[in-house]
Task: inverse folding
């Protein structure tokens, strides 16, 4: 965005903005915009931000002020000799889930779960597992592949957000698929 820290804009500040960077360790930068268009950085205990500018930052640690040049290239930020990579502000939930996870495609309410559906059941690709409702519209959530239902987090009446984990279907094992040798033996 317009902010040199890449944060969002809030009409009423309820909390500091937060950006996360990964280097040798994970670093969180908390800040808040000031009325003059700058930013006030909230430093961790024992560190004081003396000055913050787009190309230079000065930090005081144990009464010693250290100056660091700052350069940004896309999602990579160089602070002094340290290279940091900006973590996405809104990570894609699909990247943080196990294969076969069924995520809520929209915010809504679980209106029903397929009758008799329970963890451990065998399901077929395309089989409806549950239904979500949002704004008077129903949406079916179906099994992405044939396999075993290993988790079911949905229950009728439960409100869910976009990306909430609803269920997990572990695809059928390769042992269930005949090998070429088994096919030849059956001929």
Result:
């Amino acid at each position: 965005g317009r902010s040199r820290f890449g944060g969002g804009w809030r009409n009423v500040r309820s909390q500091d903005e937060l950006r996360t960077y990964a280097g040798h360790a994970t670093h969180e930068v908390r800040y808040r915009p000031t009325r003059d268009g700058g930013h006030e950085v909230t430093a961790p205990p024992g560190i004081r931000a003396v000055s913050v500018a787009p190309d230079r930052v000065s930090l005081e640690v144990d009464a010693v002020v250290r100056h660091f040049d700052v350069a940004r290239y896309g999602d990579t930020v160089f602070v002094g000799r340290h290279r940091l990579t900006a973590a996405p502000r809104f990570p894609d939930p699909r990247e943080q889930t196990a294969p076969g996870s069924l995520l809520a495609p929209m915010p809504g309410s679980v209106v029903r779960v397929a009758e008799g559906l329970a963890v451990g059941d065998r399901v077929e690709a395309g089989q409806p597992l549950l239904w979500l409702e949002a704004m008077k519209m129903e949406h079916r959530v179906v099994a992405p592949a044939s396999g075993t239902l290993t988790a079911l987090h949905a229950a009728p009446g439960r409100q869910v957000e976009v990306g909430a984990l609803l269920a997990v279907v572990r695809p059928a094992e390769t042992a269930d698929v005949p090998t070429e040798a088994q096919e030849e033996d059956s001929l």
About this structure: The chain has one helix and 16 strands. Residues 17-86 form one domain. The radius of gyration is 25 Å. The chain has two domains: 17-86, 93-172.
